[in-house]
Structure to design on (264 residues):
């Protein structure tokens, strides 16, 4: 029987995930199909999952915490960070994973000599990524616009600042984890702060994909190497596909087809 998958979120119309996964099902001759479902009320995630007879889903904004709560079993990393972006039904039990963080880690693996990382933003994505980066031994500093979201990061032992008390220093990588620049043309931090740290960074990375953000434009104006969120999207998708298909395919086998979704 054909396995049906979907992306749940609001909005979901822009998502590349259906293309990524359907190209891979076809390439690997796996009998699967992947659609999109606009879920408005996150509390109904499990009910909708079961009603639609799905084998698995990815979850995007704003439902990753609802997804976490909907699972019967969580892998240890998803449990620790409290956010799930991949669910698989195994024998009637919903298993939850977070593939954003390992996907991001792989996306920055090319920066082999990076050690000090500045994260701009303290939302859900920063939460899971800061955890995996710290596990990997990176030295993490977090700067956020508001102070509220910084509390849990401070409790986890990170160095945290708002724009008001941040003292610029030198960083190997500066990463935009805010949604600034996603649907507007704003920078993730005041220009004076960015001008003080970007010129000395080894590279600037954005998790936003599909457009050149004002942050990456500023980095380019200082001749800094840049990277957008496309590789992160691809890699989180490959790892999700491995969970969906019960680890039948290697990362490289999946990558061969999934990356075709990124050809212009
Ligand atoms: P959240 O809503 O959880 O957090 C948003 C963060 O952005 C907060 O820290 C918020 O600060 C900050 N922020 C929002 N607007 C501005 C602004 N104008 N100036 C400065 N800071 C701002 O979002 P997520 O963590 O879920 O997502 C963050 C980004 O990551 C999104 O752009 C999303 O598209 C992207 N993403 C990319 C993925 C990929 O595969 N490439 C995967 C997952 C996410 P404050 O606390 O002050 O409100």
């Amino acid at each position: 029987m054909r396995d049906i998958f979907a992306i749940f979120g609001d909005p979901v119309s822009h998502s590349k995930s259906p293309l990524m996964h359907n190209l891979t099902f076809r390439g690997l001759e796996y009998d699967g199909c992947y659609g999109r479902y606009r879920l408005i009320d996150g509390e109904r995630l499990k009910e909708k999952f079961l009603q639609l007879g799905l084998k698995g889903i990815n979850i995007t904004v704003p439902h990753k915490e609802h997804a976490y709560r909907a699972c019967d079993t969580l892998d240890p990393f998803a449990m620790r960070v409290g956010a799930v972006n991949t669910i698989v039904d195994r024998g009637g039990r919903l298993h939850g994973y977070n593939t954003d963080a390992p996907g991001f880690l792989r996306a920055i693996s090319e920066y082999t000599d990076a050690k000090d990382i500045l994260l701009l933003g303290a939302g859900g994505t920063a939460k899971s990524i800061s955890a995996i980066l710290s596990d990997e031994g990176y030295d993490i500093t977090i700067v956020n616009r508001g102070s509220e979201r910084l509390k849990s990061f401070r409790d986890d032992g990170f160095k945290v600042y708002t724009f008001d008390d941040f003292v610029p220093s030198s960083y190997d990588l500066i990463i935009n984890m805010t949604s600034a620049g996603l649907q507007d043309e704003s920078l993730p931090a005041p220009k004076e702060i960015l001008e003080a740290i970007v010129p000395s960074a080894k590279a600037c990375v954005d998790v936003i994909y599909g457009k050149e953000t004002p942050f990456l434009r500023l980095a380019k104006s200082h001749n800094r190497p840049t990277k957008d969120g496309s590789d992160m999207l691809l890699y989180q998708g490959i790892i999700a596909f491995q969970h969906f298909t019960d680890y039948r395919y290697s990362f490289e086998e999946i990558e061969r087809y999934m990356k075709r979704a990124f050809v212009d």
User: Anything to note?
Assistant: The pocket of NDP is lined by residues 61, 100, 121-126, 144-146, 149, 177-180, 182, 186, 188, 207-209, 229, 232-233, 236 (CB under 6 Å). The domain at 102-227 is CATH 3.40.50.720 (Rossmann fold). The chain has a mean pLDDT of 97. The chain has two domains: 3-97+231-261, 102-227.
